[in-house]
Amino acid sequence: MAGNFTKKILLWYTENKRSLPWLETNDAYKIWLSEIILQQTQVQQGTPYYLQFIKKYPTVFKLAAAPADEVMKLWEGLGYYSRARNLHFAAKTIVEKYNGVFPNTYNELISLKGIGNYTASAILSYAFSKPYAAVDSNMIRIITRYFGMYDDINSAEGKLKIESRAQQLLDKNQPGIFNQAMMDFGSLICKPKNPNCLICPVNKACVAFANDAVALFPVKAPKKIKRVRYFNYLICLSKKDILITQRNENDIWKNLYQFPLIESTQNFTNAQFKKQNLLKEYFNKNLIDFDVSIIFTQQLTHQTIKTRFYILQMDNLNDAAIPEAIKIPLHQLKKYTFPGVIREFLQRNSYF
Question: N or C, which terminus of the chain has less Cβ within 10 Å?
């Protein structure tokens, strides 16, 4: 059963494979870079970033030597910024520990920051032709539907069963091609929604299709309720300058820039906002006028951020002595890397 499945998937792939820039190489650096960029990112969105990174940093030496702020700025818009921080850190490790030569064993790869089971398996199969099944969301979806696996895919038992099946299906002679075939098949045929089951080459043996249960797979336990956080940003403006700060705590958006922040347990009314100590202590004598934005919402994996911006027109920013705030010219805002919700506000209000 497994052998027949694999043959049909590989045959389908020879006739339908996508043309993607990282598929034309066995350079471990480029493969690693593409895999990190494509985590939590669609191919269409990630491809331009991959090309920009390869152009800017054609080797792991160039990436390792780049300033952190420069790497983060190039990453801007992709989200999940810990990926960029880990990418930069791992590049330095590869240069310092391995003299710029990518390690080719699972244990060495998994020890690098930001590389997990899937990424290590992908690098080993694509760059070194080693027999590792790279189990991503596409492969999980295909396998659970085809075999009718009702295990929770986020449970330890469910993951183990899927990984075992994937290794059984893997073509050991061409593991990279098999892994890419499964990825393309999941993107084009066995899609999350509205899969093309009628033209699927393995539909006759697919348990989910035979039982009209395709929509039930993969099985996931109910998600936990997301935490909701309320961010109140102070846009402190004089005629030509603005105050920004940098997020350095171990929290979301680490090392990205923002504006002076008051986090609250709910949305402020204007009256509640005016009573905040920060406003009374630093701004009252210099405050000319203030306005309030609409609420901007950003959904993250485990939390929802509800953000409101308070635009404070100041007579003199020098007296607004907010700890760790940086006064910069307004026209330089574009040079800094901001989270998506702040970037949306700035773009809507023509700050850049």
Answer: N
Asked whether the beta carbons of 165 and 147 are under 8 A apart, the reply is: yes
Give the span between the Cα atoms of 336 and 251, in whole angstroms. 19
Give the CA-trace dihedral at 282, 286, 288, 290, to 10 degrees: -10
Q: Amino acid letter at 12?
A: W
CA proximity to 142, closest of 81, 46, 209: 209
Report how far residue 348's alpha carbon sits from residue 346's, in angstroms, rounded to the nearest whole number.
Answer: 6
Question: CB atoms < 10 A from the CB of 291, how many?
Answer: 10
Give residue-wise pLDDT tens across range 140-179. 999 999 999 999 999 999 999 999 999 999 999 999 999 9
**Does the active-site annotation cover 35?**
yes
Q: Considering only CA atoms, which of 239, 281, 240 is closest in space to residue 260?
A: 281
Q: Is the pLDDT of residue 31 over 60?
A: yes
Lookup: tokens for 297: 């919402």
* Nearest of 56, 60, 62, 49 to residue 22 by alpha carbon: 49
Contact 138, 118 (CB under 8 A): no
- Interhelix angle 68-75/43-56, nearest 10 degrees: 150
The neighbouring-strand residues paired with 296 are 307
Tell me which long-range contacts 83-88 makes (C-beta under 8 A, separation of at least 24).
Answer: 83/36, 83/37, 83/39, 83/40, 83/114, 85/254, 85/255, 86/36, 86/113, 86/114, 87/33, 87/36, 87/63, 87/114, 88/63, 88/64
